[in-house]
Amino acid sequence: FTSKLPKVKTTIFTTIGKLARDHGALDLSQGFPNFDADPKLISLVNHAMENGYNQYAPMQGYYGLREIISKKIESLHAQYYHPEREITVTVGATQAIYTAITAFVHPGDEVIVIKPAYDCYEPAIEVNGGIPVFLQTSADDYKIDWEDFQRKITNKTRMVIINTPHNPSGKIFTKEDMLQLQSILESTDILVLSDEVYEHIVFDSKQHESVSRFTDLAQRSFVCASFGKTFHVTGWKMGYCAAPAYLMDEFRKVHQFAVFCVHHPTQRALAHYLKNAESYLELNDFYQKKRDYFLNGLTNSKFNFKPSEGTYFQLLDYSKITKESDEEFATRLIKEEKLASIPISSFNVNDRDDKVLRFCFAKKEASLEKAVAILSAL
Ligand code: PMP
Ligand code: GLN
User: Fold this and answer.
1) pTM summary value
2) Which of 249, 279, 309 corresponds to the end of one domain?
């Protein structure tokens, strides 16, 4: 047979994770917390299972969960998504992203992807016969040149993928960025896939600019979100997609045959848990403390960095330490220093040879203390 994805290898998160375990390294590579979720949330899932919610959920998701998601978006971003027609619960944001791309990208369609890019976009486009068109952000601070963006648009452009807060750079889109995007797309029929899995992890009192805050953009957009990131339960693989009904109808045509529906008791639990807005609104402060602890510890190190504006990732530039490539340095850090991180070239910036590693600070203070000690001694 001919591979549909000849360039694709096992993901960096799988290979680095294994290397970290094999060498007994402290793992700040893949993005997941090494502390547990709120016991109340866990007992709500148990409660749902003990009360018989163990059969298929509705295909679109448990209605009570869709209802509370709709209220949450409306209260945060003043945009109404109808729970019946415009919200679907998915197996994490990954399935939402894959489903939106599969439902809309035809062979030969172009999809604009901003580099560095999270690793699941490109293969999802290619397996559907689409063509990723990459837009490189600036080397110094990962900013988008919107004129450059405009030049990437052709009559074949079907979709644009954005990700704010951005993995791996920690950059967030400003209101001006969103307005630029909105005005560039104004007279086109281009769709937007907005990956907002870190929507509740934004620092220094900045505002998360969801596409749903901009009515013209929201009319052409899929918002993809993840409960895994927000409630410290990445292993549950729970997320959702919100989009206007004319887009959601097509999305569901794929969703119903890819997974049909999502783990039912967890949806019941989340519907209950989300009623308390503090459960997600306090996340910014929670993670800002961790970012600040990590970065304060590195003040006298040889690393250069700009504080992450959002996500639970921090990029560190190691060009004052070694000339090794990011893969070589990340591998040596695991084997010799017992500390795992992700080389930034895994996010499709390999043509630039950036001397940058990504560290996940969603970790207990003791883990961050240990990481700081290792990194400061380099
Ligand atoms: N998008 C980005 C930018 C991510 O970092 C991740 C990793 N969690 C995902 C999507 C996938 O989210 P989920 O685990 O909910 O599928
Ligand atoms: N989003 C996580 C990260 O960037 C990884 C999730 C995965 O392994 N696919 O680290």
Assistant:
1) 0.97
2) 279
DSSP string, 302-356: S-B----SBSSEEEEE-TTT--S-HHHHHHHIIIII-EE-EEGGGGTTTTS---E
> Among the three residues 215, 244, 279, which one is the final residue of a domain in this structure?
279
Query: Is the same domain home to 107 and 246?
Result: yes
Which ligand ends up closest to the CA of 234? Answer: 1
What gap in Å lies between CA 236 and CA 252, rounded to an integer?
Answer: 21
Ligand 2, pocket residues at CB < 6 Å: 13, 30-31, 167
Q: What's the Cα-to-Cα distance from 13 to each of 29, 262, 299, 305, rounded to whole Å?
A: 7, 24, 28, 23
- In this structure, the answer to whether residues 264 and 186 fall within a common structural domain is yes
Percent of the chain with pLDDT over 70: 99
Q: Which residues is 375 bridged to in the sheet? A: none
Which element (helix H / strand E) includes 357? strand 356-360
288 and 269 housed in the same domain: no
As for ligand 1, residues whose beta carbon falls within 6 Å of it are 31, 92-94, 118, 163, 167, 195, 197, 226, 228-229, 234, 237, 239
Q: What CATH number does residue 122 fall under?
A: 3.40.640.10
181 CA to centre of ligand 1 in angstroms = 23
Q: How many independent structural domains does the chain possess?
A: 2
Bridge partner list, 163: 195
Mean pLDDT of the residues in the chain = 97
234 within some domain: yes
Q: What is the pLDDT of residue 90?
A: 98
Point out the ligand nearest to the CA of residue 198.
1
In a domain, 76, yes or no: yes
Q: Are 358 and 365 in contact (CB under 8 A)?
A: no
Which ligand ends up closest to the CA of 90? 1
Q: Write out the residue range of the structural domain in which residue 317 sits.
A: 12-30+282-376
Q: What is the pLDDT of residue 140?
A: 80
Please tell me whether residues 164 and 194 are part of one structural domain.
yes
* Check: complex ipTM more than 0.90: yes
pLDDT in tens, 175-201: 999 999 999 999 999 999 999 999 999
pLDDT band at 332 (very low <50, low <70, confident <90, very high): very high
Test site for ligand 1: of 94, 121, 312, most ligand atoms within 8 A of the Cβ:
94
Mean pLDDT, rounded, for 349-357: 82
Give the model's confidence band at 350: pLDDT under 50 very low, under 70 low, under 90 confident, else very high: low
Ligand 2 geometric centre to CA of 31 (Å): 5
For atom 7 of ligand 1, the residue with the nearest CA is 31
